Amino acid sequence: MWKSLWQQDCDEIFIDITTKEKAKLAAESAIVICILNMCFYRSRWAFLPLLIPGVFCYRELKRGLTDKKRAVVREQFKELLMLVVAAQRAGYSIENAFLGSYEDLKGLYGQDSPVCKMISFIGRGLSNRIPVTELWETIGNKYQITEIIEFAEVFHIAKMSGGNMAAILQNTAEIIEQKAETKKEIETFLSARRFEQKIMTGMPFALMLYVEVTSPGYFDGMYHNLSGIVIMSISLFVYLLAFLWGKRLAEIEV
Q1: For the chain, N or C: smaller number of CB within 10 Å?
Q2: 250, 194 in Cβ contact below 8 A?
């Protein structure tokens, strides 16, 4: 019973995407489906097979939003470690150092920020006599952020062996900062390429719109017949494949 309640508490705190955000992503995916249907099929029966690219679109949008949220968590986690390092050097225990940083982080990011939820979670866990190392492992597993997962592993070893906590925390913060700087440099380098990709992604639809406006009915022969459906389906498949390929090429993990 106690474990069940604790697991429910974990799930409520560490949900990545809210219901409102999911509804927004679903609406954006529905718009994409409508655009694809208008350009490639113009049939209400096409909505069913177009659910497949719609689902992929939803997953990509959700992944992008999750990555942005994790970047925010990563930055706030770095600030938390710096505050804890200062508290450790002032003589606080590691548990009190984490809990004592709450007010400072609340002033920086707000009470509902991920880092404040982390500290509140740790506070409730400690009050239930759960080891702080186990709490950090739970946080790492929920957020699926490499830096937090690795920190939880090293923190557990250092806690058991009596290692230098301040040095470990500072080293982790420096690694996060270095990765952030490297990622910014990569983002700057790839920004022009990604802008070009966005232009090329919208170009087919812009051309179809231009032709449709300047020559009404030009594409009518491609709709509502078997040969047209086959040609349009192949074109859509090639377009989606090229889009996903280009998107993957522009992504570099740090």
Answers
A1: N
A2: yes
Asked whether residue 254 is domain-assigned, the answer is no
Separation of alpha carbons 254 and 246, rounded Å: 19
**HSE value, Cβ hemisphere, 13 Å, CA-based, for 199:** 6
pLDDT tens by residue, 4-13: 434 445 555 5
φ, ψ of residue 73 in degrees (nearest 5): -60, -40
- CA–CA dist 164, 168 (Å, integer): 6
DSSP character for 225?
S
At residue 10's C-alpha, the angle toward residues 4 and 12, to 5°, is 105
How far is residue 90 CA from its own chain's centroid? 36
Structure tokens at 7: 């697991």
**Is residue 142, in this structure, part of any structural domain at all?**
yes
Q: Are 136 and 152 in contact (CB under 8 A)?
A: yes
Q: Is residue 143 part of a domain?
A: yes
pLDDT tens-digit readout, 13-67: 555 678 888 899 999 999 999 999 988 888 888 888 899 989 989 998 898 888 8
- Burial (Cβ within 10 Å: 0-12, 13-18, ≥19) of residue 73: buried
Q: Which domain holds residue 152?
A: 2-249
> How far apart are alpha carbons 99 and 106 in whole angstroms?
12
Q: Looking at the domain assignment, is residue 192 inside a domain?
A: yes
Rg (CA), the chain: 25
Mean pLDDT, the chain, integer: 82
